[in-house]
Amino acid sequence: MDSGSANEAGAGHWRVAVVEDHLLQRRGLVSVLRAQRGVRVVHEGESLPDLVGWLAAGSAASAPDLLALDLHVDRGLSVDPDVVRGLVRDGIKVLVVSEMTSLPLVRQVLRAGATGVVSKRDSIADVVAATRTVLGGGRWMTRELGEFLAREGDRPALSDQEERALVLYASGSTIDQVATALGVKRETAKTYVDRVKSKYAAAGRPLRTKVDLARTALADGYLD
Amino acid sequence: MDSGSANEAGAGHWRVAVVEDHLLQRRGLVSVLRAQRGVRVVHEGESLPDLVGWLAAGSAASAPDLLALDLHVDRGLSVDPDVVRGLVRDGIKVLVVSEMTSLPLVRQVLRAGATGVVSKRDSIADVVAATRTVLGGGRWMTRELGEFLAREGDRPALSDQEERALVLYASGSTIDQVATALGVKRETAKTYVDRVKSKYAAAGRPLRTKVDLARTALADGYLD
DNA sequence: CGTGGTGTCCCCCGATCGTGGGACAAATGA
DNA sequence: TCATTTGTCCCACGATCGGGGGACACCACG
Fold this sequence. Notes:
The structure is a homodimer of 224-residue chains. With 224 residues, chain A is an alpha/beta fold. Chain A has 10 helices and 6 strands. In chain A, strands 2-1-3-4-5-6 form a 6-stranded parallel sheet, with helices on both faces. In chain A, helix 7 (160-170) crosses helix 8, helix 7 packs across helix 10 and helix 8 crosses helix 9 (186-202). The first copy, chain A, starts with 13 loop residues before the first strand and ends in a 5-residue tail after the last helix. Chains A and B meet through helix 10 of A and helix 10 of B. Chain A binds a DNA duplex (30 and 30 nucleotides) through residues 159-162, 174-176, 184-188, 190-192, 194-195, 197, 208-210.
């Protein structure tokens, strides 16, 4: 499909960018990647905005093939799924390197187009394998996330608004609070929640009450 | 207090009973205990009722000092906390040997007077140490339970009825269903739940909604 | 070109919740 | 002994839930 985007492995090298806010961990990750044949680390940064700025400054040909992205949510700094979506659209593959602290965030980034997830607790061999797999166009999932992907079957696909509504509602918000937070009318928020229920019911997991939603949202990784 | 109950270590031996439904695990536990100096295994059984029957048949002097009790909840066979309470009242110390499958049950048995908990995943040395400690009148807790005991501070003490009401209500039952299950009037069940809220509020953890209760009940080990 | 999913909004209505009172007897504990 | 806790029951009222119905526009997939 993306036959237009040229530099997939220019001069036999994959171009990799690393975004990770912890210096030590970043150094570690970078050194592991550098040691890999055919891999060139073209950017190291603390945050996604840094990377975006760097991309804007450089030529299109300098764009990386892969972004190894940490998902630490310390200091209020979070990763914006929309930014990830943009990068993916630009042909950059995304590998999440995470502590799995926030399952919902991992989900969002995955939905934004990331094609791999490794845990920092995984072995170096696993990290390398993940990098190779994602660069090759494949998907890579840590064992820790396997259980959730395995259950993906009986978990219905929710739309963006439905998921946001579920998260808020299942956290204890009233319908009115959900509506306000989403910037829609009460009836609309109600519809979202109703549709979540319908979808789960269609998947053979009827959720009637708010408590059911809370329990399920937790079990299915929508809440922490 | 129990200065009347004589045979605490008659002839230098502690009398121990083992109740565990899995034959292999029971054999293992019994052999570990037998290998201990000064310990005599006087009863092996599959269930608590078996032990009670055996106790009723024998003389008071044959009663054990310690009961090593498994908490497996397979095949619908559960452990009745009231029976445990009775044994404790008779001067028998209780050590729970569990897989920690059901935290609520562990809690109930602890409240019924058990003074020790070991996990089957603990080392043999730990099991032995736990046995000694409990026989000596002390308390023993697996590390796995330590986190919960540590948080015991900001978790208010709930009465039996309050805990039962919380468990049911937080699982999704309506007040009416809780009332029916407990065999009391709607208003009474309402009072129980209200008191749970009051206690948590007094402990600095206000719980206003049903979802709050569900979340907290899960976090505090009242639900699985 | 229709079908389905999505985003948005609207109405009704009975059930349930959350909060505020009050009462009283038994048990517990300081 | 007196205060607290517990178990039990009762009432009222506004907020919220849960289920049902309908509507319409957009967009994508086939």
